[in-house]
Structure formats: C-alpha cells, structure tokens
C-alpha cells in the first residue's frame, strides 16, 4: 500500500537544480570573455525549503535569480525546475514568482489591479470570479484588504512591499524568488516582515530562494544558507553550519558582524604562532603545520591568554561591547559583555575558546 | 519681476496671435477689402465706408465658398483638406508605430553596433530633405507614386522616422525594464507585456511624437508641391497653386481655409502641451 507512495517520494525531483551555471556580461560576453557574474553555480533546492543566498553587492545574486526566472540565459550549465529542463522555457512558462528589489508595483494601477495582473495573463484563462477570489485571499493573507482600491503610488514602502509579495503569492507558483525584498525598508518593519514572511512561506508550502546581503535575514529565515561570493557558491549549509563551521576563510569572512578573526599561523609543538612570532592559542598535536585559524569575536575571552593585546576602540552595541584591539600587529575583534571595563589603551591577554577555533590547513 | 514676466508673455502672445487674428479678419472681408491700400481692421461697418476708413463690412461669403472649385484648381478646399488629413494621419500613424517598434528594440535588446545604428538613423536628418527632391521625383515617376496619397505618406513617414525613433527611445528608456520583466515572469509573453504594460506607460510619449510628426507632415510644402501638383494635392500646395490663378488670389477664401487648416494642429498641441517640453528635451532628462 505504501510502497508506491514511497517510491514516488524517492524519485520526486528537487524543486530547483542548477548545475554549473555560468553567466558573463560585458564586452566579449558571447565569445567567452567578459566579467563573470556567475561562475559554475551548483544549487539544489528541496520541496518546501527556504534557501537564503547570502552575498555582498555585486556577487551575482540578482543574476542568479534572473537566470532561474528565465530573464537571463546562462552561457553554460543547466537549470531544472521540478526535474524539467528549464532552459527552453520562457519566463512565463516556468511558474515561478519573482519579487524584484527595485520594482514592486505598477504605479498607476490600484492595489487590486496589481494583484490581479498576474492572474489576468491570457495563458492563465481564469474567470473574473476566480481572480476576485484569489485577490481577496492574498490580500487577507498579507493584511492589505483595506488598501485594495488605493493607487499603488500612494502606498508606504512597507505596504508596497506587502502588495509586491502579494503579487507573487496570488497565483500560487511552484517557486518563489525574492530579490532583497526587505532591503529598502526601515529596520523595524524589516524585522516584522521577516517573521511574517517566514511563516507565510511555511503555510504556503512553497520553496523559496531568498537573496540578501543581510546576514540577520540569512540566519533567522533560512533552512539552508548558500554563500555567494564573486559568482561562486563558497558554502551551503544550515545557518548553524555556515556560522559555526565556515569551510574556508572566504566563507568565514562573508558571515559575521563583527567579522570572524582570521590569522595565518604555524604550529610550534602545541601552540599556534603567527609568522612574526605572536603566540595566539593552544593547538592540537595532530593539527596541520601551517594553517589559517578563525575564531568568532564572541569566543575570545578577556584574560588568561599567552600574549598581550591593546584596545584601540570600544564600541557600545547595546547588549554588548565590541573591542577593536591589536595582538602584535594583528587586528582582533572581541565581543565583550556590557560590563566590560576595558577602555581604549588598556591591555589584556585574550584567550581563544579552543573548542570553537576553526582550522584550515594552508599550503 | 512679475511685471517683466507678464510683459514677455503679452509680447509673445501678440507675436503668435496677430497672424491668426489677421487671418480671421481677412476671412470675413470682401476680396477688395483684403487688398485695399488702407488696412481694414474693424469689422463694424453697416453701410459702405470711405476708402481710407479702418472699418469694413464683414461677410461670411468666403466661408461658404470653401466648397467652390476655383479657377486653376481641380477641387474644392474641402477635398484638399481631405487629402491633407489622409496623408497627415496615415504618415503620422506609420511613423509613430514603426518608430516605437524600432525604439523598443534599441531600448530593450542588445543590438550589435547600437550606437552606430542610432547615429545613422539620426544622420538621415542632417541633409535638408529638399536637396533630394529631384531624384525622389524621378523615382516616383518611375514607380507611378507621383500625385498619389501613398507617395506622400511614404515620404513623410521616412522623413519623420528618425525623429520618431529618437523621441520614442527617450521615452521608452524611462520605463523600467522591470515593468515588462515582472509581467513576463507573471505569465505574459513579451508581446503581451509590451501591449499591456509598456504601451500604456508610453502613451504620452507616443502622443508627443505624433504631434511632431503630424505638424511636419501637415505643413510640408516643397515635396507636396513638386510631387503632387496634379493629384492628391494637399492644402499647402493647393493654396500656393491658387496664386497663379487668372481671377487673382481669392484671399478671403484662403484665409478661411487657413484657419480651418491650422485649427486641428492648435487643438492637438494644446491637448498634449504638458508633455511637449519633455519631448523636446528628450535624452537629457534621466531619473
């Protein structure tokens, strides 16, 4: 009885599968030259998965979404949606919804017209009643019912973004693509919508690719995070994985505020020592001879360490203080408790929490 | 400052308004009054006034005579106006439609050598059109296009196309690509997105472009006179043709006809006046 079901579950293809997707722009792009916006991107998205692609400006995040949506054609690689090769599909036939970063709504149309627009596409052939019903459903879900007859240009930023997301959900697509949908909103609203949208995605049981440069969004919303740097995916994993166990110094640099402390070190017996002779921490006997080690600012204790550090600046971050210090010639960020008494110019002996130190072998 | 502004406006208005006023006055005069040595400006006389008087007796005779076929002409003013309307509207329509389509391509797709093509399009305006009137005439004779509506429609369309492409490119560039891209992701084809999303946004731009094209086709005289002196004669060529008339120029009728001829352009221009300035500064405003 359950055997066929299981088999079906087993062979069900991922919602989205990118293999080696490469896209170049600029002069000579067609001849294989030109700046690479995407460089061999592999990405798999499961059913109902919420994937956040995190990367700095210019990393290729928007190009990635546009390629999935079919607005860009990759120079190389394959895009498959639910197991179907999507390369030959027009954007309209992919059944994905894209929320743009810099465009949300048709300004001269009302909210209702904007919400109805995706449903009124000739290919969709929905009746007037069905359209009205779906618009009402989406408006209710996003709490914009009272705005329905207002022109889009008269909405506030937060309302606009809600309606823009409404436009995306109203036709119940197979995949959501969100291009920094919260970036242009103020902090309070951003936090509010973050929670709301996470809930909404869960309710709709639709997979999401959410692109952002905001690590708070990545860590709070994602089932899985993909770090995109210079057109390459450098690491994917749960937020916990990516934060606690970055797989390379590059990935470590990408996530964390204040950033992870990174040092190029050599192992002398059971101690990590920098090239200019500053002893930093205890090393395992089996650790590589040469390595880059990383330690998050919250895993640096303020005394008991092997070397002296000097505080340069203390920043008050509310619940905690951030010390910008130097140990030898190397910059060191420390997240200290609020009652920390150290001031600029003070010395302390930082200890790294050895269990939390990440070690990458170096040639 | 305010006074200066008012003065400038008054002077400007007089400059623009006086010819129109004179046309209106002439259209209600007897022919003798239009060419009288002493100017006749006040249409109030009831009896025959003295020759030196500024006053004249108004008459609407010229207006009813617009339907008359004058000596030396083949048809009445109304028929020639019909030619002008047909040629002007058709060529404007063609220019705007083709120009919009071409500009959309340049605006939205990567065209190899885009800048060179656009410069080529613009360069077709560098030469004064009348410089090619003789070769065009020879070609048109060969093709039996001389003296036809189609001939002038083609010619005016070609002349206005470069203006239309450049104007429309300016307008279309201001419409965010995301408008269509959103529609395309939402289930529309590019053509449907163009019609549903881009065209409504480009309406004002198309209206402005249409005004410029219509004015230039409507007022064109040189080619109309050369190519179409015998058939499908437009109003400017018709008026000019009356000059050699054996009865002498029928000034009151010409004045009445000119008012009718100018009216649609004035109305059309007033309707889109808000957008005309943007059209004329195309390419220089970028948000």
List keywords for this structure.
heterodimer, A: 363 residues, six-stranded mixed β-sheet, five-stranded antiparallel β-sheet, 9 helices, 24% helix, elongated, B: 287 residues, mainly alpha, MetI-like fold, 0% strand
Tell me what you see in this structure.
The complex is a heterodimer of chains A (363) and B (287). Helix content of chain A is 24%, strand content 32%. Chain A has 9 helices and 21 strands. The relative contact order of chain A is 0.11. The mean pLDDT of chain A is 89. Chain B has helices at residues 2-27, 31-34, 61-64, 77-108, 114-123, 133-142, 149-173, 177-185, 190-219, 222-227, 235-242, 251-271, 273-280. Chain B folds into 2 domains: 23-56, no CATH class; 73-280, MetI-like fold. Chain B is mostly helical. In chain B, helix 4 (77-108) packs across helix 9 and helix 8 (177-185) packs antiparallel against helix 9 (190-219). Chain A binds chain B through residues 69-71, 90-92, 94, 96-98, 100, 102-103, 106, 108, 117-118, 121-124, 167, 171, and chain B through 176, 178-179, 181-189, 192, 197, 200-201.
Outline of this structure?
Chain A has 363 residues and is an alpha+beta fold. Chain A has a domain at 258-361: Nucleic acid-binding proteins (OB fold (Dihydrolipoamide Acetyltransferase, E2P), Beta Barrel), CATH 2.40.50.
Give me the strand/helix succession of chain A: HEEEHEEEHHHEHEHEEHHEEEEEEEEEEE
Radius of gyration of chain B: 23 Å
Query: Averaged pLDDT of chain B, please?
Result: 88
Whole-number average pLDDT of chain A? 89
Span between termini of chain A: 56 Å
Query: Terminal Cα separation of chain B, in Å?
Result: 31 Å
Give, in order, the helices and strands of chain B: HHHHHHHHHHHHH
What count of helical segments of chain B does DSSP give?
13
| CATH architecture designation of the domain at 258-361 in chain A | Beta Barrel
Strand content of chain A is: 25-35%
Q: Can you list the strand order of the major beta sheet of chain A?
A: 6-7-8-3-9-10
Major sheet size, sense and barrel closure of chain B: none
Number of helices of chain A: 9
Query: Mind telling me the CATH superfamily name of the domain at 258-361 in chain A?
Result: Nucleic acid-binding proteins
Sketch the major β-sheet of chain A.
Answer: 6 strands, mixed
Structurally, how many domains make up the residues of chain B?
Answer: 2
Radius of gyration of chain A: 25 Å
Helix coverage percent of residues of chain A? 10-25%
Can you tell me the CATH topology of the domain at 258-361 in chain A?
OB fold (Dihydrolipoamide Acetyltransferase, E2P)
Largest interface, counted by CB within 8 Å of the partner chain's CB: A-B, 23 and 16 residues
Low-pLDDT segments, ≥5 res of chain B = 283-287
């Amino acid at each position: 009885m359950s055997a066929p079901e299981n088999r079906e579950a087993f062979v069900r293809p991922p919602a989205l599968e990118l293999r080696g997707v490469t896209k170049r722009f600029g002069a000579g792009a067609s001849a294989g030259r030109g700046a690479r916006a995407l460089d061999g991107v592999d990405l798999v998205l499961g059913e109902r998965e919420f994937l956040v692609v995190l990367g700095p400006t210019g990393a290729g995040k928007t190009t990635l979404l546009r390629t999935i949506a079919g607005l860009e054609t990759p120079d190389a690689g394959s895009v498959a949606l639910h197991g179907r090769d999507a390369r030959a599909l027009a954007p309209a036939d992919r059944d994905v919804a894209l929320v743009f970063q810099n465009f949300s709504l048709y300004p001269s149309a009302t909210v209702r017209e904007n919400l109805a627009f995706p449903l009124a596409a000739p290919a969709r052939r929905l009746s007037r009643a069905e359209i009205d019903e779906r618009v009402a459903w989406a408006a209710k879900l996003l709490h914009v019912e009272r705005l329905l007859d207002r022109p889009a240009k008269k909405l506030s930023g937060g309302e606009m973004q809600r309606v823009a997301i409404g436009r995306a959900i109203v036709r119940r697509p197979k995949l959501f693509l969100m291009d920094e949908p919260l970036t242009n909103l103020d902090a309070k609203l951003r936090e509010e919508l973050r929670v709301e949208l996470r809930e909404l995605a869960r309710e709709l049981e639709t997979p999401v690719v959410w692109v952002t440069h905001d690590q708070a969004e990545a860590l709070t919303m994602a089932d899985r995070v993909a770090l995109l740097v210079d057109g390459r995916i450098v690491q994917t994993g749960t937020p916990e994985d990516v934060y606690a166990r970055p797989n390379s110094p590059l990935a470590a640099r990408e996530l964390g505020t204040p950033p992870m402390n990174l040092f190029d070190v050599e192992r002398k017996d059971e101690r990590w020592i920098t090239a200019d002779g500053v002893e930093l921490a205890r090393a395992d006997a089996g650790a590589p001879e040469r390595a880059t080690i990383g330690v998050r600012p919250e895993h640096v204790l303020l005394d008991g360490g092997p070397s002296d550090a000097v505080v340069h600046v203390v920043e008050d971050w509310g619940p905690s203080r951030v010390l910008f210090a130097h140990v030898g010639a190397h910059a060191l960020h420390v997240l200290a408790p609020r009652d920390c008494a150290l001031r600029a110019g003070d010395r302390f002996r930082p200890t790294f929490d050895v269990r939390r130190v990440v070690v990458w072998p170096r040639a | 400052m305010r006074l200066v502004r008012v003065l400038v406006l008054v002077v400007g208005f007089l400059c623009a308004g006086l010819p129109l006023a004179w046309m209106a006055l002439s259209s209600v005069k007897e022919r003798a009054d239009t060419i009288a040595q002493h100017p006749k400006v006040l249409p109030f006389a009831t009896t025959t006034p003295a020759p030196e008087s500024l006053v004249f007796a108004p008459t609407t005779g010229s207006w009813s005579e617009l339907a008359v076929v004058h000596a030396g002409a083949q048809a009445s003013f109304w028929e020639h106006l019909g030619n002008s309307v047909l040629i002007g509207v058709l060529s404007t329509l063609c220019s705007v439609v083709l120009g919009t389509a071409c500009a959309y391509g340049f605006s939205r797709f990567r065209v190899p050598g885009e800048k060179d093509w656009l410069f080529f399009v613009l360069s077709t305006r560098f030469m004064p059109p009348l410089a090619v009137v003789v070769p065009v005439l020879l070609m048109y004779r060969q093709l039996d296009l001389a003296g036809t509506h189609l001939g002038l429609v083609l010619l005016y369309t070609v002349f206005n196309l470069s203006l239309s492409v450049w104007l429309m490119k300016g307008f279309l560039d201001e419409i965010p690509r995301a408008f269509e891209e959103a529609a395309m992701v939402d289930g529309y084809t590019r053509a449907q997105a163009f019609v549903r999303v881009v065209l409504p946004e480009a309406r004002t731009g198309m209206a402005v472009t249409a005004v410029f094209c219509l004015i230039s086709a409507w007022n064109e005289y040189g080619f109309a006179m050369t190519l179409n002196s015998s058939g499908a004669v437009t109003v400017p060529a018709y008026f000019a043709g009356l000059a050699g008339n054996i009865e002498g120029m029928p000034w009151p009728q010409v004045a009445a006809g000119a008012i009718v001829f100018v009216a649609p352009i004035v109305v059309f221009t007033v309707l889109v006046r808000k957008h005309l300035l943007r059209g004329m500064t195309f390419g220089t405003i970028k948000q």
